[in-house]
Amino acid sequence: MKEQKLSNVTSTYTEAPGHLFNIGDKVKVIRSNPPGHRRTPAYIKGNDGIIERICGSYPNPEELAYGFVGLPKKVLYRVSFKQVDVWANYTGPKNDLIEMEIFEHWLSPLR
Amino acid sequence: MEHENPRMGPHDVGGEVSGPIDVDDHGMSHWEKHANALRMTVSGLKLATVDEMRRAAENLGDRYNQIGYFEKQTEALAIVLDERGIIPKKMLQTELNKVRERFQVPIIPLPDDHDHDGKPIQEDETGEGPNQHHCMNLAMQEILETKGLIKANQIREKIEKFDGDYPNRGAKVVARAWVDSDFRNRLFLDANPIIEELGIDLEHAARIIALENTTDVHNVVVCTLCSCYPRQLMGQPPTWYKSRSYRSRMVYEPRSVLKEFGTHIPDNVTIRTHDSNADMRYIVIPMRPENTTGWTEEKLEKIVSRDSLVGVTIPTV
Description:
Order of helices and strands of chain A: EEHEHEE
Number of strands of chain B: 4
Radius of gyration of chain B: 22 Å
Strand content of chain B: 5-15%
Largest interface: A-B, 52 and 49 residues
Number of strands of chain A: 5
Largest sheet of chain A: 5 strands, antiparallel
Radius of gyration of chain A: 15 Å
Strand content of chain A: 25-35%
Strand order of the largest sheet of chain B: 1-4
Number of helices of chain A: 2
Structural class of chain A: mainly beta
Oligomer: heterodimer
Shape of chain B: globular
Helix content of chain A: under 10%
């Protein structure tokens, strides 16, 4: 698997062992509306994007929010979306992008 | 702007149609600084997590939109500390009564000609004593101190850092990136270690991603779900960053929002809007203005405004 290049100094990037997706992969944000604390905004659910960066693995906020330790950690990605895909009436140029962090369990592969 | 999905709660505002943005920063009153410092100290010590407090705020329902930002944070903190058994509700109520009593001092009539150096005597901001939420925060602090979980100086130091140190750090990073290409390259690769080499202690609080503005790309940052912001690097976010209008609109009409800040980005420049929604925190590295050749870092720092670190303005000379 392709890993991110890091500088030689001690990096703060956490590891992302067993990550499912790689930079450049096409993904779809799962369209699901379970109750509870989630970090996937409603407006991006169901959209197709591209993995821009693997941020590492982080304690799961959906567990942390209720006082649990959030383990096992979840892989976090930055995903890039075209604004014209996200908003039907987007008035800006077609190259404009919107990017955000999405945990792996909110993404499905898109071939 | 419409999308098909139900919102997760009152906080999930990305895409909502909303009014114009008040682009002025209104600063913070003392009680807000105290509330912020208490919350940051408590989460820093892992007595409660930020996610628990966010969840508690999201669950306030209608109240979420009826009270202010720091009021919400205060109530959320109280809810979580109760859930964790650190400050049960009854204990907080008892302490709250004591705090209120402390402020009920008798009013002493003063002679009409009494003044201070010729200036009239100024009462506190409201003239009504501390507000309910400040009393809650004071009571929570009191209990946590009594339990030996925090020390008063930790809160004071946090307030001081927010007043003095934190807000100046972002400009320092930008100025160094403008003059030192090795620093710049490493900054975009992995920001935290290289920022810490400047003597800036990020307190292990957040992973920073530096975003590079170029002649082809302009970056802007927003947090639609709350108000994520690299506080240890840039201080307290300006008032507008936390506003409903900014959080709702920046994701679907960045150019219109930028115009309200007086910033015009031509259509041949791609706007990358970053919704800062999880564990990363962002700093925009603007382009160095022309006509600054030979400037010292100190002089360059002065033209880097806080707003430019979020991408809503552009440094100019």
